[in-house]
TrEMBL record:
Bilayer-crossing regions: none
Group of enzyme by EC: transferase
Record protein name field: 8-amino-7-oxononanoate synthase
Pathways involved: Cofactor biosynthesis; biotin biosynthesis
Needed co-factor(s): pyridoxal 5'-phosphate
E.C. code: 2.3.1.47
Domain Aminotransferase class I/classII large residues, every copy: 54-379
Protein species of origin: Methylobacterium marchantiae
This protein's UniProt keywords: Aminotransferase, Biotin biosynthesis, Pyridoxal phosphate, Transferase
Family: Belongs to the class-II pyridoxal-phosphate-dependent aminotransferase family. BioF subfamily.
Lineage of source species: Bacteria, Pseudomonadati, Pseudomonadota, Alphaproteobacteria, Hyphomicrobiales
UniProt xrefs under PROSITE patterns: AA_TRANSFER_CLASS_2
Recorded catalytic activity of this chain's protein: 6-carboxyhexanoyl-[ACP] + L-alanine + H(+) = (8S)-8-amino-7-oxononanoate + holo-[ACP] + CO2
Length: 395
């Protein structure tokens, strides 16, 4: 007879079921199993979970724009005018007006000739990196680079070399060792590292890149709009899903590079275009971000208030890690904070290196100073010991 655990009704589990269950048991034993929790996000950084209202410090909606009435109105208007979906790949059905306007605005914001919007930031990195580099090329990736930078590098078939996190000496050494054996070289780094909140030394990397005829891609997923001016790379990619409160990814670059990606990035060519609503939301959010610079500076100021309160190194971005060590301990601290009304999710391997599970505290312009102070007090009262900052990710 069939049951939810054995839908086929056949005696004994299939090898697929056994594989999945055995893995789940192992993940559970090491506190690494993930669970989806029904959660309702609302304005003012509030998240309702387990029947309780929590102040969320886990969201990348750094400016609270996903809940902004002006952004919501733009989405409603675009949906009424253009419908809910793009219909097909953009090379088939074309670019609907909010997408074309968004690309123009993104390029102007970054000061590049052109921009190309992808289905997500993850898809953008897969397509850009594998569209630019191939088996005869070299890709150098920061050791703490996001999963999608590594995935794009591996997909390309290029020689992939890791350099120690933010370590210019190591990067230079790797370039000296490998560059001459490859046709092109591409350096992949981030403006703000997603799990550590520290910043890449972009200007110095650009100098090294120039000296070794290497191209640089900066992933600006967590920097856009919230950390002030920085040196610009020839390949600036990012996401529409964080400070812009929407969904989608982008590349800002020269006209030639954008045109090449339009024909060559497989995660652009062979996938459906972004819905009008997502493009309209990002466009409205970008306009607000540009028009209200004081508001855009707020998440970093709040993060610095928090690090000062707890005696942590001064925040370099709206992301503050509290490094705990073991996954179980990080989960326990997160649960204790939830008891006190705060959503601060524990980040565990393989998202971060083994032994460096942490609380990742993300600040938003929607938080109040009082909320930030109260969270700092709750963390202090619970007691915590931080590990030193990380240099390497075990992969
Ligand atoms: C550094 C970095 N790059 C890229 C991405 C992927 O962006 P998206 O969420 O739009 O796929 C993320 C998102 O988690 C990220 O943190």
């Amino acid at each position: 007879m069939s049951s939810p655990d054995n839908p086929s009704g056949r005696a004994g589990a299939s090898s697929l079921e056994t594989f999945a269950r055995d893995h789940l048991v192992r993940l559970g034993e090491t506190s690494l199993r993930r669970h989806l929790i029904p959660t309702v996000r609302g304005p003012h950084s509030v998240a309702a979970r387990h029947g309780r209202s929590l102040v969320s410090f886990s969201c990348n909606d750094y400016l609270g724009l996903s809940q902004d009435p002006r952004v919501i109105a733009a989405v409603q208007a675009a949906t009424a005018l253009y419908g809910t979906g793009a219909g097909a790949s953009r090379l088939v059905t074309g670019s609907h007006p909010p997408l074309a306007a968004l690309e123009e605005r993104l390029a102007a914001h970054k000061g590049t000739e052109a921009a190309l919007v992808f289905g997500s930031g993850y898809l953008a990195n897969l397509g850009i990196v594998s569209g630019l580099a191939g088996p005869r090329d070299l890709i150098l990736v920061d050791a703490l680079g996001h999963s999608c930078l590594w995935a794009g590098a591996r997909l390309s078939g290029a020689k992939v070399v890791r350099f120690a996190h933010n370590d210019l000496g190591d990067l230079e050494g790797q370039l000296a060792k490998y560059r001459s054996r490859h046709q092109h070289a591409l350096i992949l780094t981030e403006r703000v590292f997603s799990m550590d909140g520290d910043r890449g030394p972009i200007a110095d990397i650009l100098c090294l890149a120039e000296a070794h005829d290497a191209w640089t891609l900066v992933d600006d997923a967590h920097g856009l709009g919230v950390i002030g001016k920085d040196a610009r790379a020839p390949l600036e990619m990012g996401t529409l899903s964080k400070a812009l409160g929407s969904y989608g990814g982008y590349l800002c670059a020269s006209r030639a590079v954008v045109d090449l990606m339009t024909s060559r990035a497989r995660s652009f060519v062979y996938t459906t275009g972004l819905p009008p609503a997502s493009a309209a939301a990002a466009l409205a959010a970008l306009e607000i971000m540009e028009a209200e610079p004081d508001f855009a500076a707020r998440p970093l100021a709040l993060a610095r208030r928090f690090t000062a309160r707890l005696g942590l190194p001064e925040a370099q971005s709206p992301i503050v890690p509290i490094l705990i060590g073991e996954a179980e301990a990080a989960l326990a601290l997160s649960a204790a904070l939830e008891e006190r009304g705060y959503l601060v999710v524990a980040i565990r391997p393989p998202t971060v290196p083994a032994g460096t599970a942490r609380l990742r505290v993300a600040f938003s312009a929607a938080h109040t100073e009082a909320q930030v102070d109260a969270l700092a007090e709750a963390v202090r009262a619970l007691g915590f010991e931080t590990l030193p900052p990380q240099r390497e990710r075990v992969r």
